[in-house]
Every structure is written in structure tokens, then in C-alpha cells.
Amino acid sequence: MPDVAWFVVRRLLATVLVMLALSLAVYLIFYALPADPARLGCGKPCTPDRLEQARHFMQLDQSTIQQYLNFLRGIVAGRTFGEGSAAVQCQAPCFGYSFPLARPVTTLILDRLPITASIAAGAAVVWLLVGVSLGTGAALRRGKLFDRAAVGFALIGVSAPSFLVGLLAILVFGFWLNMVPVNGYVPLTESPVDWAWHLITPWLVLATLYSSSYIRLTRSQMLEEMNLDHITTARAKGAGERRVVVVHGLRGVLVPIVTIFGLDLGSLLGGAIITEKVFSMQGLGELLLSGVGQLDVAVVVGVTLFAAFLVILANLVVDVVHGVLDPRVSHG
Length: 332
Description:
Blueprint lengths: L2 H29 L5 H4 L7 H10 L6 H14 L1 E3 L6 E3 L6 E2 L4 E2 H36 L4 H15 L2 H15 L15 H34 L3 H8 L4 H29 L3 H6 L5 H10 L3 H29 L1 H4 L2
Antiparallel strand pairs: 1-2, 3-4
Helix pairs in contact: 1-13, 5-6, 5-8, 5-10, 5-13, 6-8, 7-8, 8-10, 9-10, 10-13, 12-13
InterPro entries: BPD_transp_1_N, MetI-like, MetI-like_sf
Membrane topology: Multi-pass membrane protein
Protein name: ABC transporter permease
């Protein structure tokens, strides 16, 4: 088996094991909380008999290990809560069932995912372009005004809280200048223009915050890369400065950039909690917050695991890309 293929197989096996361990930890932690899902769904008056019926219907009267195995089985094959005509079906992949909302958690996640994915994908493109461009420019103009301005911008992005940047953006561009919408979301299928127009402010806010680390990383890596022997050799052979920077310089910077980009995007796809709250967008972050507020354990567990799986998946993709970009990684 080729080295890259064997590397991918090993990473896939490790990813499955990590997901299983993580799902067990998250499940046990949240279901050990004092909140009783059966009591919350029992209604009033909640007599001992009705509470027992609710526990049986929600399959909470079984052992913790059996409940966890049922949860894993639901992800693969779906689950059925209750019996007879009152039974509730949760089709695979079933991340649980929200009895307060009377909907499968997977359905709730898929309903909110387009909003979170729109925020994350657009912001990722902006912060990657801004971060790498400013970082490269700062490295090539070390000590000059451009370099100081880029480093200052990065320092502001690292220091400023996300909610503060978001509120300031709404205040200045939404209310004072009346240039952009201050809240809401328009689906891409309805109007691509309105979709982008409602997301432009969240994109810029997240890009301001996330691009800071890319500016600093790109600048430091580019300064090291431009002093290496292969750069000197390329210049000695008569290669233009643009070709030296883009083809030879940026290639050495790609590996660390890909690493943090994949992890940042994966974590943001799990829910931009503060950004969604500030801009009143009903994404995964808002779903998680509402689940915590209503003590809906199924929603909290489902969204948390889904977000964790996205981060682990992003980490897997990063490892595979590393193995392709740098064959030395696949031998490690």
C-alpha cells in the first residue's frame, strides 16, 4: 500500500477511536447533570407514575451504558421512542430527540446548519485572503509603515472581544451610517444578493478577529522562508521577485496555514455562538444556547457532539492535506 494511502487509513482509524471516546465523555458528562429530561417533559402535575412513564418513554429508565449504546445505535440505524401509536421515530443519523421541541435533534441541526455554514465559509475566505496578504506584505516590507500597520491591526484583532467588535460594527455601519442590515438572514436560494448583504457584517467581524493570527503566522514564517537557501538559489537563477514570493516563498508557509485554517473553520462550523447572538441569526450557536436555557439535554448533547465531530473531521482533512503537501509527514 502506498505511503499516503496507508497514512490516510491510519488517520481514519484514529479518527473513529477519538470520536467514540469523545462521544462517551460528552454523553456521560451531560447526562450526569442534575437536570432530569424526564421531569422536564413530564408536565404538571408530575406525579410519580407519570414521571416513571416519561422515563420509560424516553428510555431513561435503562442503565447509563445501555443508554449510550442506544445513542450510538441511533446514529447508525435510528431510534424509536415509546411504543404503539404514540411511538416517536428518529431516523438515522439520530443525535437524540428534543421532546420540548418535538423534533429530532438531527433535523434541528440541519435546519440551522446553512446559516452557520454561510457565516463560517464567507468569513473563512475573507480572513484567509486578508491574513495571508497582509502577513506576506508585512514580511516583505519589514520595519516599514505597512509592516507596523499590519502588526497593529493584528494586535487589535487578538485583543478585542468578538461581542464588542460585533456591537461596534452594528452601531457604526448599521445605525449611524445605515449601510448594512443589523440582523436577520436571507437564504441563498431566495436571493443571493440579499444573502450576502445580510452576512457582510458578520463576515467582516469574524475576519477581523481570525485574520490576526494569520497575519502574525504568515509574517513570521515568510521572514524565515525568504532567508533560506532555495530562495537565494531561485533569485540567482534570475527568477522574478513575484515568482520567488508566490511559488517558492508561500509554498513553505502553506503547511502551518492549512493547519490553523482547517481547525478554525471546523470549530466555527460548530456554531459561531457570540456572532449569531449579536446579529440575531438562528444558527447552531443559537440552538445550543437555547438548549442550555431550556435544559434540553438532548439538544445540548447533539449539537456539542456534532460540533466536536466537525473539528475532528477538519483535523483529519488537515492531516491528509499535510501528507500530500509534505510527504515527510506521512512517514511520521
